[in-house]
Amino acid sequence: MTLEVAVSSGAPIPLDVAFQVEAGELLALVGPSGAGKSTLLRAIAGLWQPDQGRVAVGGETWLDTARGTRLPTHRRRLGVVFQSYALFPQMTALANVMAAGADETRARAVLELVHLGGLEARRPAELSGGQQQRVAVARALARDPAVLLLDEPFSAVDRGTREGLYAEVERLRAHLNMPVVLVTHDMEEARRLADRIVVIDRGQVLRDGPTEDILFDPRALRGMGLREAGATLTARIDGQEGDGLTRLRSAGGPLWLPRISGTPGDLVRVRIMAHDVMLARRRPEAISALNVIPGVIESLLPGDGPGALVTLTVGDEVLLARITQRSVQAMGLAVGQSCFALVKSMAVARHQVGREDP
Amino acid sequence: MDWPALWLSLHLAGWTVVLLLPVAVFLGRFMAFHRFAGKGVVEALVILPLVLPPTVLGFYLLVAFGAESPVGQLWQGAFGGPLVFSFEGLVAASVLFNLPFAVQPAQRGFEAVPREVREAAACCGMAPLTALWRVELPLAWPGVLTGMVLTFAHVLGEFGIVLMVGGAIPGETRTVAISIYDRVQAFDMAGAAQMSAVLLAISLVTIAVTFRLSARAGRRLS
């Protein structure tokens, strides 16, 4: 049961995207807002009709503009979790799940599965945001969908609740034997949940690959937009220090980061967010940042606002720095110049360190 | 007290509501959910009776329903009687004249149903009519009902159009509003006062019901 999607359209945004999702695979569509991610999801659901396209699941064709096939949404066996949950406000949690065509036994079982046993009789207004989200997930799963679509499903809940929901989805994965498509602009969310990532930018597939590869690929990350921009340095563990830091060897010299478990020689990948990097023309002294990485400016990209994205070549790797255009001017930065990137050790969180499998 | 006139008015209002209910639901829903070329024109046409003087609308309907008009001839051919100066003609005029009172609140009601909720209904496998019955109407009904209540009350009070299209034939087209006018013409102030009081009471109840419904709708959607 593979989901095949190929969509191209001129409006509302130019789109030309094709991808496949295998049964049991969770694919994250990531990209800056306005890139066309949600529009793609709507095309799969039949809520939006592209100029040209084909959507097929298993042997069933849902959309084929070349042959004039277009199955209406209500006849596509899918489950959708909307950004705003879109629960039916006049119905109880149980009735919401049953509205998807499940009988009462099945509905109760699915609510149990998302840990909402006991809250069946509550209406959406009487549930917390996280609980409403679980009802939405239960409703999407209730009809045993051929495809599960998640449209920025965690963006409306607070960070803490989101962590819980991530854990929930990870636990539910054993039950998700259909292709799952998750739309998100949150790279961390994609990292936590996705098996594969497709990066969409301006209606095109920028990158398509396993999560690990995309997450540590600066080219893909640049397509994500500045807020999520970051790059990855490969480094080897050099030794564990007595003060809770780990010393690493990288192409840019020694790095000190909060404790990374491992033995000297282990290869790790460190994701450094562009907005955590400062630049200096000369090697600074007497500063608190432990990591001073020499590099050469490869490119300077002014953003729409006051910021600019600077790409530094460090050995054969790349580091991104997001600084103000004012600083670019004041420091007289130019392509080809050498400078120093300053990274606070504490700015690199544990989840930003990846393992290189031997 | 002209009981036949009140009975006739209630009859007229009832038929108008019955005929306008499906129109309000489907036209209101369509206007709420779809954007199309010329939507502004359709909306303007629906609202037109609200601003047009009733006698003007009545005049056009009189001409349009008359024995010489295609509509009048069609009616005459089918039912053997004239459309003007008949109860059926009054119902037809009343339906047209009350379009804005029925459709506008219904449209507002449907507009209050969030798009994602409607889409969720389709994504749950509900066919459009099922979604209308199970998801949209349960959320939009205060608007639809408000439109029906307004229509009912408005029919009871309508004067100009009824007089133009229906005349004042007792038992056929003489509604309670016309009857009040006739009583005053005949210096029967007591009779006029009685009937006016009845209409006043009905209007007050209408306003109360409408307010309750809109407050309830506001609570549900907050």
Automatic annotation (TrEMBL), chain A:
Domain of life the protein comes from: Bacteria
Keyword vocabulary terms for this entry: ATP-binding, Cell inner membrane, Cell membrane, Membrane, Molybdenum, Nucleotide-binding, Translocase, Transport
Protein name: Molybdate transport system ATP-binding protein
Organism: Marinovum algicola
Domain Mop: 286-352
Annotated GO MF terms: ABC-type transporter activity; ATP binding; ATP hydrolysis activity; molybdate ion transmembrane transporter activity
PANTHER family on file: ABC TRANSPORTER I FAMILY MEMBER 10
Record domain ABC transporter: where: 1-227
TrEMBL record, chain B:
Name used for this protein in its record: Molybdenum transport system permease
Organism from which the protein derives: Marinovum algicola
CDD domains named in the record: TM_PBP2 (cd06261)
Listed Gene3D superfamilies: MetI-like (1.10.3720.10)
TM annotation in the entry: 12-32, 44-67, 79-99, 144-169, 189-211
Main location: membrane
Keywords carried by this UniProt record: Cell inner membrane, Cell membrane, Membrane, Molybdenum, Transmembrane, Transmembrane helix, Transport
Membrane topology field: Multi-pass membrane protein
Molecular function per GO: molybdate ion transmembrane transporter activity
PANTHER family: MOLYBDENUM TRANSPORT SYSTEM PERMEASE (PTHR30183:SF8), MOLYBDENUM TRANSPORT SYSTEM PERMEASE PROTEIN MODB (PTHR30183)
Compartments in which it is found: Cell inner membrane; Cell membrane
The keyword Transport is assigned to this record: yes
